[in-house]
Write a structure and sequence with these properties.
Blueprint: H1 3-12, H2 15-24, H3 28-42, H4 56-60, E1 65-70, H5 76-89, E2 111-116, H6 119-131, E3 136-138, E4 147-149, H7 162-165, E5 166-167, E6 172-182, E7 188-201, E8 216-220, H8 225-236, E9 241-246, H9 256-271, E10 277-282, H10 292-299, H11 304-312, E11 331-334, E12 339-341, E13 343-344, E14 347-348, E15 356-359, E16 362-363, E17 374-379, E18 386-393, E19 399-407, H12 411-425, E20 429-434, H13 436-439, H14 452-458, E21 464-465, H15 470-481, E22 492-495, H16 499-507, H17 531-541, H18 546-550
Parallel strand pairs: 1-9, 1-10, 2-7, 2-8, 8-9, 16-22, 17-20, 19-22, 20-21
Antiparallel strand pairs: 3-4, 5-6, 6-7, 11-12, 11-15, 13-14, 17-18, 18-19
């Protein structure tokens, strides 16, 4: 059996075929091992497998702006560079062939750009080895299999060698495209030409980032805002993609100005599912190349906040957020430690226990049983839009936020918005709560100098006054956010359609985002992003329960007919 036959056997042969070949010629094992090692070195991309199973979306997404957020050594840069190699060469690894979108090859050959912190400290020792076919990236030597050779195949390099394909003067890499893509439907596409990639660093002048259009841009670690936005401009006319692979800084000194722009502009847009954006989170402990014991040893020397950053890529600039426990994505709770924790090797890194549960507060919309009572909460404002939320109370006394709205204008205008929401969602409200501070204010646009409460009551929005206790209310909400030991889930959840509420919960913060005496947050709160989080605080202060609202409260008559709701036991 010659070399080509050996490689064909290992790449496409079945286990039975390989066993039969070995039985016929036992020496084939050594020859197979040698040939495979050499072939992997020259064409590592063909053998590509996910180091982190969570990274699959990096290759599947069609989003134009992609945030790959992960802990240290979570495989974020490796994965992004593998994606670059696929896009530049048009060659899809067998492991991705069934799901890789053919739409990504609409512009081959491509113009690409990779930007990193430093040309000397990052490009040379980190980025280039991940692309050079003759450079090993991993733990131990290649025989251990815990790593990979550089992703660009030798035969794809323009001129056949790295030295010919890479220009040291201009820091550009030329890669030949010569492949045929076969789609899932059997259709084929011939891909030919030469792709080029430019390498830049964040310490270069902004003028270096102007120039021609780019089909693909990759940022290794968070870029300055002006560089990111310039690269965004380079992709607009060709509908290119921007990938950013990073671990957020774990220094409190990195302020909202340093990282907050990316969090608000890209990261949260991806979490919210806005068109054109995707956020992909990679956890260090899921990287199959790393040793779990080594990770645990390293992380035991870090604070809880540093662990959250370095293992899960969470943003430390949000440590001053009041409801920091509120999770848009999934997290892990330890019932013994009574806190959100980092998982390593199946247990809590702090107490080593396994009484843990994954949880999240943002969920997909789902049908609400008609016997769950609905409470509407409104935070009116005479000089800006009213914040309004609707909450369902479950028989186990959980709270589910099912809808939100903003309304402006007169009380009659606000009522029309409320009617529309309750009609479209078929909500029969049993109680309405209102901010008591604003309720007593007067405003001419409400009509004849009436109070806001009186104006709303006059058009049929009859509200009880909420309890506005701030500190106790915050504590009440914090208890709702903790997973319950009996149900293994938080008592409060919100539909992912309540985007303004979610934004407020993730951004409402203490006046000083650093902690007083390094122990407790200061008690003064900011007004910014406060309106929608106030809604759940008002409800929490009302001590909500199923029995209280389902059986004890009077139905608030509204635009939705009672025929939508069956007669409840005990109702009159």
């Amino acid at each position: 059996m010659n070399t080509g036959e050996l490689l064909a056997l290992v790449k496409t042969g079945t286990d039975a075929q390989i066993r039969a070949a070995v039985a016929a010629d036992p020496s084939i094992l050594d020859r197979l091992a040698d040939e495979v090692l050499e072939d992997r070195k020259r064409f590592q991309l063909a053998y590509y497998t996910l180091a982190n199973p969570m990274a699959k979306r990096v290759h599947e997404t069609l989003a134009r702006e992609v945030a790959i957020v992960g802990g240290n050594r979570s495989s974020k840069t490796d994965t992004m560079m593998a994606e670059l190699a696929i896009r530049m060469t048009g060659r899809v690894p067998e492991a991705l062939r069934a799901t890789y979108p053919v739409e990504k090859f609409g512009s081959l050959p491509i113009r690409a750009r990779v930007v990193c912190n430093s040309l000397t400290d990052t490009l040379e020792p980190v980025i280039k080895p991940k692309l050079r076919w003759d450079q090993w990236n991993g733990v131990g030597d290649p025989n251990d299999g815990r790593g990979h050779w550089g992703w660009i195949p030798q035969h794809c390099l323009a001129g056949g060698t790295w030295e010919k394909a890479y220009s040291e003067k201009y820091r550009t890499l030329a890669v030949n495209v010569d492949s045929t893509w076969v789609g899932a439907d059997g259709s084929t596409r011939s891909l030919r030409g030469t792709s080029k990639c430019q390498f830049l660093s964040y310490d270069q002048d902004l003028t270096a980032f102007s120039g021609s259009s780019m089909h693909w841009v990759g940022h290794d670690e968070l870029p300055p805002a002006d560089i990111y936005r310039e690269n965004r401009l380079r992709t607009l006319d060709v509908r290119g993609s921007i990938y950013t692979a990073f671990t957020p800084p774990d220094e409190i000194g990195m302020s909202r100005a340093d990282v907050g722009w990316f969090y608000d502009e890209v990261y949260e847009a991806g979490l919210q599912g806005r068109p054109g954006f995707e956020t992909i989170r990679l956890f260090t402990e899921n990287n199959s190349i790393l040793d779990a014991a080594a990770i645990a040893d390293l992380m035991s020397k870090l604070t809880d906040e540093q662990r959250a950053v370095r293992l899960h890529g969470e943003f430390l600039h949000l440590t001053g957020v009041i409801y920091s426990l509120f999770m848009h994505g999934s997290a892990t709770w330890c019932f013994k430690c009574q806190k959100r924790i980092t998982m390593v090797a199946g247990g809590c890194i702090s107490c080593k226990g396994d009484d843990v549960v994954e949880f999240a507060h943002v969920v997909d919309p789902h049908p609400i049983p008609t016997n769950w009572p609905i409470v509407m909460v409104i935070d009116p404002h005479p000089r800006k839009k009213d914040a309004i939320g609707w909450f369902a109370i479950t028989p186990s006394d959980d709270i589910v936020m099912v809808a939100e709205a903003e309304a402006d204008g007169t009380a009659a205008d606000v009522k029309r918005v409320i009617d529309d929401v309750e009609r479209s969602h078929r909500l029969l409200v049993r109680k309405r709560l209102m901010d008591p501070n604003i309720a007593t204010e007067t405003n001419d646009k409400m009509g004849r100098g009436w109070t806001i409460r009186k104006a709303y009551d006059d058009v049929g929005i009859r509200c009880d006054m909420a309890n506005d206790e701030i500190n106790a209310g915050i504590q009440n909400v914090q208890e709702l956010l903790k997973p319950d030991r009996a149900t293994r889930r938080p008592r409060f959840r919100a539909f992912n359609t309540c985007q303004k509420f979610i934004y407020g919960m993730r951004h409402w913060s203490w006046d000083e985002h650093v902690r007083a005496n390094d122990k407790e947050p200061k008690e003064k709160v900011r007004d910014k992003a406060k309106d929608f989080p106030d809604l759940i605080r008002y409800l929490a202060n009302d001590r909500p329960s199923y029995s209280k609202y389902a059986l004890g409260a009077q139905i608030v008559r509204g635009p939705v007919r009672e025929r939508h709701i069956p007669l409840l036991v005990g109702a009159r």
